[in-house]
């Protein structure tokens, strides 16, 4: 019985040594994968933390009332996502709402547009800045409102 206990302790010791060696080896090259904290932006450009919680008046008409905001898409094959107001159909009318996807697709640099639910338009426009794309998409929506 004493022999099997010693064998188990030897195996545990060997396993611990192997794990320690692995951790040491992984640590040697880790610096190459560590992000440079100073080069990482703290906030999204043009954004103020807590702005969505502020009691600012939001537009109730016009393109800014239809396309509320823009972000980075996490969907494969897309670079941006437009947040579409739940009031978009009532602001644009049924026909304008049906044309919204195609209208955003005519914006310069846009390769593809796809709905996610009723309030997210994923956009593939890899060469476009977020703020510029939002501005141009709103300009396209303004034509639907006329």
TrEMBL record:
<protein>
    <submittedName>
        <fullName>Uncharacterized protein</fullName>
    </submittedName>
</protein>
<feature type="compositionally biased region" description="Basic and acidic residues">
    <location>
        <begin position="7"/>
        <end position="31"/>
    </location>
</feature>
<feature type="region of interest" description="Disordered">
    <location>
        <begin position="1"/>
        <end position="62"/>
    </location>
</feature>
